[in-house]
Structure formats: C-alpha cells, structure tokens
Hints:
This protein has 182 residues and is α/β, with parallel strands linked by helices. The chain has helices at residues 22-29, 63-74, 107-116, 135-139, 148-165; strands at 4-8, 35-39, 43-48, 51-56, 81-87, 94-98, 122-126, 175-178. It starts with a strand and ends with a strand.
Amino acid sequence: MQEIAVFGLGNPPLYNGTRHNIGAEIAGLLLKGFKKIFRGKFCEIYAKGKRRVIKSRVYMNNSGLAFAEAHRNTRLSVGNILVVCDDFNLPLGKIRYRMSGSDGGHNGLRSIIESSGKDFPRLRIGIGEPSGVDPSDFVLAKFGAEEISRVEKAKKAAVGWIEKFWDSGWAGSNLTIDVQSD
C-alpha cells in the first residue's frame, strides 16, 4: 500500500459550517482512528498506517502555504495528495473528481497551483451557485436549512469514495457523482 493523503481545504474554525469549509469538514470526518503526527505553522498532519489527513491552518487564499508544508513534511509526491474543496460552479451535491486541472476560479486551488503546480488530484464538492450574491459572501455563508440534507449526503458520498480509494491511490479516470435530494 502506497502512502497517500487527503488535504481538506477550508478556512480557520471560525468559518466551520460555511460553504467554503466543506473540504475541511470532509477531512475531519475521515479522522476516526488517526493521530496527529505533525503540527506546523501552516498545517496539521494526521496518520493511520500509510494514510494521511492534512488540515490547513491558514485562510483559503493561502492554501498553497499549507499544501507546500504538508508536501515537504510527508515527502509525498503532489500526485499522492488529494485536495478536497468546495465548488460553486457545480450544483449542490454534485461531486467531481479530476487528476489535475485549472483552479476553476477557486482561490485555494489557485494558491496550491502557484506553490506546487497543477498536477494533483482534486475532489470538488458542489455547493450551489451564487446567483445574485457576491461569490465571496456566498462561499462564506452557511448552508440553508433546505440544503443540509443534500450537503450531508454529499459529505457521506465523498468520504465513502475516499475510503474506497485509500488503498489503490487516486489514479484513475475522471468521475462525477450526483447526490440526489430526498
């Protein structure tokens, strides 16, 4: 089994429950049985065997600092670090996996690409579109009561997908999962 890691993007705990923190929340759901092995200036690294979960300690726009610190301290190739983040270009509940690509307008991904290149896998979680609202305000808002069920299903589906691929690595074809509402 190769050593691989999940890097959940998000802002500091003050922003828990917001759309922008869904990646960090998914990383948190994976931590059962893990123990902290590193606490740096920019990130924390947890381990369970050859599995790693990385939690950023910086604001989203500086995610590249945390990713670079994690990359140095785990000695993993960037291709073995799956980044999990929100995406307002995807409908609420849709999950998209890609082996590499652009930032798609996501400032956290942009920061990582600037620090480490674009060839890392990513799992994007659809948070809905900010129609009529400033995108910055939208991503920092909490989910509405009518959205919570779909968000929880998306988190559960993302965790299930990650757990399925822990042992085989992230390589493979691109994938889209659509989590249906009740």
